[in-house]
């Protein structure tokens, strides 16, 4: 436990240190608008309010997506409990090191409340996979549209072109895996999962669980398509949230220096992916560095990317705290055959997840 606590403290230290460095680096840069300059400007209430409302709607949509995946396996679960556990998962993902803290919480609690625990945990895994899948598909679809209309932001930027092609490769590989999985019988699928455990000594167990989660939903094609579409809509909301966050501290006559909406649809998913994979609380520091680099790669000031990431993070933090208090203050709704966790169980799970 001491070792786990030490690792967690190191991750917090790395995140805060990197964040401090990015703020210092872009506080008053030699040229262009710095963070200090932007903070002295009047706050733009309209863009800030738009960012808050859009992000709230997008987050609620992700909770509903998970609820649909759970009900697709005919598990006793209510939308109300999906929202409650979703909010707490969002809280953990925002404040715990790494990006799976929220998933651990949801998996632990839904497993305690269900008799088919493996299936219950698989819903959390497949929800994360569909979320990431939707992120890559958004880049591919946006890139295809911008390519067809000859959007200068894509045509003249090699970095954005590489992002589109890389995302297209990931989507093509995922579609191939999906098609191949439909050829195998249930027995063959089980043997393949066991083989993964033997072939991959260190990560075989994780790979096998991912494969089993995929197989559980292979015969639920319509549900997967529906939730993938919900994922795309949610990610559009996340892109628009960041788009408006960049305009919170800049005056209307200064927005021409920012990436266009088309560029945001290609840049933001990449920044979100880097932030999600950075092993600090909510990607702290890593997200700011990523967006600063991405903005600089498109000819905008690095400082505006860092500031936009900070504004977005503040909105995330406010929603995460709101979700925590909502979970603590709202009683769960439980179907007749679904057990409800007690407060002591919540505290124990919170403690275990915090040390992961």
> Could you say which overall geometry the principal axes of the C-alpha atoms support?
globular
| Helix vs. strand class | mainly alpha
Q: Helical amount among residues, as a percent range?
A: over 70%
What is the helix tally?
A: 15
Number of domains: 1
What does this structure look like?
The protein is about 75% helix and about 0% strand. By secondary structure, it is an all-alpha fold. The protein is globular. The model is unreliable at about 335-355 (pLDDT under 50). It has one domain (about 1-355). It has helices spanning about 1-25, 35-40, 45-70, 80-95, 100-110, 115-150, 150-155, 160-180, 185-200, 205-220, 220-245, 260-275, 285-295, 300-330, 345-355. α1 (about 1-25) crosses α14 (about 300-330), α11 (about 220-245) packs across α12 and α11 (about 220-245) packs across α14.
Task: Characterize this entry briefly.
With 356 residues, the protein is mostly helical.
């Amino acid at each position: 436990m001491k070792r786990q606590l030490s690792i967690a403290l190191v991750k917090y230290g790395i995140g805060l240190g990197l964040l401090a460095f990015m703020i210092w680096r872009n506080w008053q840069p030699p040229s262009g608008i710095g963070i200090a300059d932007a903070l002295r400007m009047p706050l733009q209430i309209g863009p800030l309010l738009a960012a808050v409302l859009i992000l709230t709607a997008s987050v609620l949509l992700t909770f509903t997506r998970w609820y649909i995946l759970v009900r697709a396996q005919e598990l006793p679960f209510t939308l109300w409990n999906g929202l409650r556990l979703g909010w707490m998962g969002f809280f953990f993902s925002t404040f715990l090191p790494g990006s799976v803290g929220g998933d651990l919480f949801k998996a632990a609690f839904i497993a305690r409340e269900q008799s088919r625990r493996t299936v219950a945990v698989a819903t959390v895994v497949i929800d994360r996979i569909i979320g990431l899948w939707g992120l890559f598909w958004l880049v591919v679809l946006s890139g295809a549209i911008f390519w067809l209309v000859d959007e200068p932001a894509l045509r003249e930027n090699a970095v954005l072109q590489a992002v589109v092609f890389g995302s297209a490769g990931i989507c093509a590989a995922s579609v191939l895996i999906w098609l191949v999985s439909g050829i195998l019988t249930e027995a063959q699928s089980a043997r393949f999962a066991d083989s993964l455990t033997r072939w991959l000594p260190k990560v075989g167990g994780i790979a096998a669980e991912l494969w089993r989660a995929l197989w559980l939903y292979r015969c639920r094609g319509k549900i997967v398509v529906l939730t993938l579409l919900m994922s795309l809509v949610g990610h559009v909301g996340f892109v628009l949230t960041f788009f408006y966050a960049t305009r919170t501290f800049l005056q209307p006559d200064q927005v021409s220096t920012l990436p266009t909406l088309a560029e945001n649809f290609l840049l933001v998913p990449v920044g979100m992916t880097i932030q999600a994979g950075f092993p600090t609380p909510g990607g702290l520091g890593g997200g700011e560095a990523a967006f600063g680099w991405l903005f600089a790669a498109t000819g905008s000031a690095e400082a505006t990317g860092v500031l936009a990431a900070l504004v977005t993070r503040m909105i995330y933090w406010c929603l995460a705290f709101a979700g925590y208090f909502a979970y603590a203050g709202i009683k769960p709704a439980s179907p007749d055959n679904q057990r409800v966790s007690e407060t002591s169980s919540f505290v124990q799970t919170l403690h275990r997840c915090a040390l992961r």
